[in-house]
Amino acid sequence: METIKVYTPEEAAQTLKTDTKTILSEIQAGHLEAFRVGSDWRTTEQSIMDFVARGGSRPTDSAIPRPISPHTKLQKAPGFQYMWPNGLTEEYPLAYEGTSDDSARHFEVKIGIGEREMAGRNRKRVLVLLNGRPTVEFAGADDFETSDLVASLITLPNKSRLKTHQPIPKEYRSFDVRQYNSLIKGPRAAKTMAVVAKIDDLDTMVSHAVNRAIYRDDL
Questions:
Q1: Which of 141, 114, 136 is CA-nearest to residue 125?
Q2: What is the mean pLDDT of residues 18-36?
Q3: pTM to 2 decimals?
Q4: Which residues contact 200 (CB under 8 A, 6 or more apart)?
């Protein structure tokens, strides 16, 4: 049997001339193939070589494709207001609506884009409603004016947030997943993991919302 050369994250970091935190981030994002031994991450020499050959920080071929977005149909819609249970009413001057379907599920989709103060500053804000229920929210990154990036926290089926040391669920392996406070800094900015998308990437927003709805059984 051929011997497999196995690396700890620290050893992989030394090989790639970076730090352990970056290696763990690449593993969490699905860019560097790895496996767990108990609670510890390990990777292999071949995985490191494949990572370099692909050009570095890109998803692996084993990434799971987003299952819903090919069946999502959206069109521009009039702006709208949404009143939260606490009585706060928010304006969404830019809006889209439509449907998202597969063989087992049907969702009525509505997306609103506006602004709100979050993490100490006014930010772009996106609200995705499925079947009339607010499902996920995105907030503009600190550098939104130049990057157009927004981020939305990932909540697991057990209602906890996806932490940096946890593996990315298979439903999210094809997404751009990063630590929330690496893009959004300020008071109460979460330190857990988030989906990152361009402001016009409605497919990603809807796919994230559908994952969340399925996790909490909004079928």
A1: 114
A2: 83
A3: 0.70
A4: 148
